[in-house]
Amino acid sequence: MKRCFVIANGESRRDFDVNRLYPYGTVIGINAIYRENPKLDYLVGVDINMMNEVGNTFYKGAEVWTYPRNQIKHQYFRRFKQDKGWSSGPTAVWLALQKQYTEIYILGMDFCGINLGSKPKLRLNNMYKNTPNYRDSKREATFHGNWENQMRQNISKNPNVKFVRVCRKDVTEFRFVPKKLREYTNLSMIFYEDFEVLLKAWPEIR
Fold first, then answer.
1. CA trace torsion 48, 49, 54, 57 (10° rounding)
2. N or C terminus: which one in the chain shows less Cβ crowding within 10 Å?
3. How far apart are the C-alpha atoms of 164 and 187, rounded to whole Å?
4. Are 47 and 77 in contact (CB under 8 A)?
5. Nearest to 171 by CA among 19, 14, 51
6. Which tens digit of pLDDT belongs to each residue from 75-89?
7. Residues facing 188 on adjacent strands
8. How far apart are the C-alpha atoms of 64 and 79, rounded to whole Å?
């Protein structure tokens, strides 16, 4: 199988060093992960302000992909032929499918906000909250419906592709699976403890 890792920016991946993935397959990062200069093959983003931030730094750490939007001004970015109007995470998975990867491990795609204890509603779940081009941590969680519908299209249209979400078992919100995704047998969920076993078993390919 052609193996790929998609690194979304939910906080469930906070304690995992994403640089460990690079020897074992293609790595796709999303949005502000570029600020950490990790080992990536591709960086995907669709938000106009976020992608102009990326371009303004002259980032060249990975091949950058975005939608064909005129407001995204940097010409060295690669452009999808179609603007699907999707969020960055599902778009990154779509890129992996276009590149014909058949085994896609997804880290940090949490679909759910986090519980801050004293707040009655779940709050924003993102590694880069409280930084430029992101909302602050006091805001309510982003509704997951768009991500759910977009990932449903990715999964349902590619039944022979193996999609694996890597999650943390110690936080209930991180284990949340949207209702529309529960029926697909080509989507599974494993915990980081299981993922560590795989990392030890896989041969390095570079």
1. 140
2. C
3. 6
4. no
5. 14
6. 999 999 999 999 999
7. 164
8. 8
State the angle between helix axes of 88-98 and 145-156 in degrees (0 to 180), rounded to the nearest 10.
10
Q: Are strands 63-66 and 187-191 parallel, antiparallel or unpaired?
A: unpaired
- Phi-psi region at 22: left, alpha or beta (left = phi > 0; alpha = psi -120 to 50): alpha
0.70 exceeded by the pTM? yes
Using a pLDDT cut of 70, give the percent of the chain over it: 97
Tokens of 110: 């949490």
Q: Distance (Å, rounded) from C-alpha 140 to C-alpha 159?
A: 34
Q: What is the pLDDT of residues 150-177, one digit of tens each?
A: 999 999 999 999 999 999 988 788 888 8
Question: From CA 45, how far away is CA 60, in angstroms rounded?
Answer: 14
Closest CA relative to residue 66, chosen from 78, 81, 82: 78
pLDDT of residue 33: 98
